[in-house]
C-alpha cells in the first residue's frame, strides 16, 4: 500500500552547499560584497560570479537574508528528499511500536531542479545547484546515478559538474538554438558516453516526445548495465521542467508543445521502470513560467511518480482541478490538463510544414541516440561534439566531494572545496541527513510503508 507524505524542507548548511559550491561564492551569496569595496569594484565582483541580470543579488541585508533562506531551503529540500530514499531490499527501520518508519522508493522536490547554477556562479534564476548536490549525495549513498533532465533548457550546470564522470551520467533533452538560453547543449555525446545531449525540435508534441523519451531512458539504462563503466545505475534523478509546455510565456511561441500528459507520461515511465529495476527515484522540478500550468503539471506528475509505488494510479486521477482557494484560476476549463491546439502547436505556421519540421527534428534526435549507442557499444570510436580528453578513463569527478570535505556533525571540514579530479569514493551514507526521516521536515516523498497518513 502506498502513501504520500509531505515534509517541511530541512535547510542546507554551509557545509552541505560547500560540497559543490566555491566558498567565496557562497560567502558572497550570504553576505554580499565586502563594504570596503567601491561601487564599481562591487559590481565587478558580482559580475565575475554572474550575480547580475536574472540572478541579481539583493542590495539590502534583509534581501540577502531572504535569498539565503531560499537557497538553503531549495538545496536542503533536494538533499533531504534524496536522504529519505531507501534501497530496495533493505530492512526498514522500525519505531517503538515495531512499525516501519520509512520505506521510500520515490521522493520529489518540485522546488528543486536549479540546474543552471555552477560551482562558482549563478545562472538562469539558479543560485545553487540542488540537482548536483542531491546527485552527489545519491552517488555516495547508492552508487552510480543516472541524471535525466527534460526541462526545455540545457542542464548545463549539472553536465559541467559531472563532465567525464561515469558515476553520475547526465542526459539532457532540451531545445538548442542560437540565442536560446543557455546556448549550450549542442547535439552530441561527451566523454565517450557519460554525457548525452539531445536537442528536440520546436513544436514537439506529446506523441513525438513520449515514445522518444521512453526509448532514451530504456536505451541508456539498459546499455549502461552491459557496456559502460561502473555498470548498472543504482539510482535515478529526473528533473522535470514545466517550461516545455505549450505556450510557456518565457520560452515564447517557438518552444515545445507538450501538454501535461506528455510530461506525466515521462515521469510515469521512469517511475515504473525504476520500480521494475529496483532503483530509487528522485524527481525534481525546473522551469515553468505559466504558474497555473506549472501547478497543473507538477500536480499530475506527482501522481505519475506514484506509479513507482502504486502502478495504475495515474489512470485513476480525476481530470478536474481540485476545489480550493485558487479554483477560479483553472478556468475556463477547470481541468488539470493542458491541451494545445494543432495550429497553436506550430506557432501559427502552416500545419503541414510545421509537422514536417518536427518530424525532421525527431529523426535527428533518434540519430543522436543511435550514435550514443554505437559509441558505448564500441562500434565506433569516441564521441562527437566533445573531444575525448579525459573522458572515458578516470574521468573528471568535478562536483564530487572528497571525504575530507564531508562532515558528519555539520561543522565545516578543513577541505570543503570540490576537487576537479577527485576520484575518491567515500561510500556509505554517513551524512547528517541520514536520519532525516526521524525529523520529518523534508520534501514530498512517495513511500510504500504502512503509514496511515494518506492514501
Ligand atoms: Zn528551463
TrEMBL record:
Residues 8-299 form the Histone deacetylase domain. It comes from the Eukaryota. One of its GO terms (molecular function) is histone deacetylase activity. InterPro entries: HDACs (IPR000286), His_deacetylse_dom (IPR023801), His_deacetylse_dom_sf (IPR037138), Ureohydrolase_dom_sf (IPR023696). Residues 412-422 have a biased composition (Basic and acidic residues). Residues 333-356, 382-455 are annotated as: Disordered. GO terms for biological process: epigenetic regulation of gene expression. Residues 389-399, 423-438 have a biased composition (Acidic residues). This is Histone deacetylase domain-containing protein. It comes from Triparma columacea.
